[in-house]
Amino acid sequence: MKMQKKRYVLKFPPQSGDQPFSYHLVKDFDIRINILRAEVWPGKTGSLVLELEGTTTNLKNGIAYLKANQVSCEPLNKKITWDNVRCISCGNCTAVCFAGALQMDPEKWELQFDPEKCIVCELCVPACPLNLFKIDFRE
Amino acid sequence: MAIQKTYEEINEKIRRGEAVVLTAEEVSQMALTCSPEEIAEKVDVVTTATFGAMCSSGAIVNFGHANPPIRMEKIRLNGVPAYEGLAAVDTYIGATACDPENPKYGGAHVIQDLVDGKDIELEAWGKGTDCYPRKHIKTVINKATVNEMILFNPRNAYQNYPVAVNSTSQMKYTYMGNLLPHMRNATYSTSGELSPLLNDPEMKTIGIGTRIFLGGTQGFVVWPGTQFNTSKPKNEHGVPVGNSATLAVMGNMKEMSSEFLQAAYYEKYGVSLFVGIGIPIPVLNADIAKNVSIRNEQIETTVCDYGVEGSPALGRVTYAQLRSGEIEVQGKKIRTAPVSSLSKARKIAEILKQSILAGEFEISKPVQMFPTNTSLKSLKEQ
Question: What is the DSSP string of B68-128?
Answer without folding.
Answer: S-B--SEEEETTEEE---STTTEEEEETT-B-TTSTTSBHHHHHHHHHTT--EEEEEE---
